[in-house]
Every structure is written in structure tokens, then in C-alpha cells.
Specification:
Layout: E1 16-21, H1 26-41, H2 49-67, E2 77-84, E3 87-94, H3 118-125, E4 128-133, E5 138-145
Antiparallel strand pairs: 1-2, 2-3, 3-5, 4-5
């Protein structure tokens, strides 16, 4: 190595990123877009990207619904993506006080049957999910295992 050459360390990649989105249906697409951007930055993709985007859509949609009917100014929805070891964790914070409940379809086509059915999807796709009280409101989280690295 030359006397003038220097080793330059690659800056560390953030293992957690957080966003605040307006409590608006457009935020679902914005959150998905930021997730995909972050997965590319982490060099995580392939079979994980689509289920992660679908989980993000469901969790943010539920947060938007939890904020429906609140008097202005409506608080923002917090979204956080965490890469931890062999898992991707998706977290969505809303100020709603209701706890999400998985509702199985009864075959009855009513408006009420739509609410909670997205959590059936979350339950099926995620390796784990849950709810944590968060001062004002709650954080609903879901996790996915990272795909195994490809062997050369």
C-alpha cells in the first residue's frame, strides 16, 4: 500500500429508520415506497420485498382507520423499519386506543366484516406480530425472517 493511500471505512448502514406520514390514505403508498427504498439500501429484497410491502400496507391502512373521525389536527402516523439480526421488523404507531383483533370471514357480506380481515393476512404472512401500548396510542408490529444468503 502506498504511503499516500488510506483505508476508508464504509459508513455503517442504519439498521432502523423512522418516518412520519399524514393520517391519510395516500400514506399507505408512501410507506410502501419508503420500505422498498430502504430494503434496497440494506440490500435485502427478493422473496422478502413483496410480503413486507403487503404487511406495511395493511398496518398503515389500519392506522389510517384508527385515526378516522379524530378532530383536527390529526396526529401523524409513525412508521419504523428495523433490520435486526435475521429479521425485518415493521412498526406502525397510531393514536387509536382500540386494540386490533383478527376477524375471520363469516361469509356474511357486511361492511363490518371488512375491518380486521387485513390482520388475517398479517397473521398468515408474518412470523410474528403484536401490539405494544405507546404512551398515546399503540404500536402494531410484524416481523419477517430475512432470506438466507445465496451461496456462490
Amino acid at each position: 500500500m502506498s504511503a499516500r493511500a488510506r483505508f476508508v471505512a464504509t459508513p455503517p448502514v442504519a439498521t432502523a429508520v423512522a418516518y412520519r406520514f399524514p393520517s391519510d390514505a395516500r400514506s399507505v403508498g408512501w410507506a410502501r415506497r419508503e420500505l422498498r427504498r430502504q430494503l434496497r439500501a440494506w440490500r435485502v429484497g427478493g422473496e422478502l420485498a413483496e410480503p413486507a410491502a403487503l404487511l406495511t400496507s395493511e398496518l398503515v391502512t389500519n392506522a389510517v382507520r384508527a385515526h378516522a373521525g379524530l378532530v383536527a389536527p390529526v396526529p401523524a402516523i409513525g412508521v419504523r423499519f428495523v433490520l435486526a439480526g435475521d429479521r425485518l421488523r415493521l412498526e406502525v404507531h397510531d393514536v387509536g386506543d382500540g386494540e386490533p383483533v383478527v376477524k375471520e370471514s363469516t361469509g356474511v357480506e357486511e361492511e363490518e366484516t371488512e375491518c380486521g380481515r387485513g390482520l388475517v393476512l398479517v397473521d398468515a404472512l408474518a412470523s410474528g406480530w403484536g401490539v405494544v401500548p405507546a404512551g398515546t396510542g399503540k404500536v402494531v408490529w410484524a416481523e419477517l425472517p430475512l432470506p438466507a444468503p445465496e451461496m456462490p
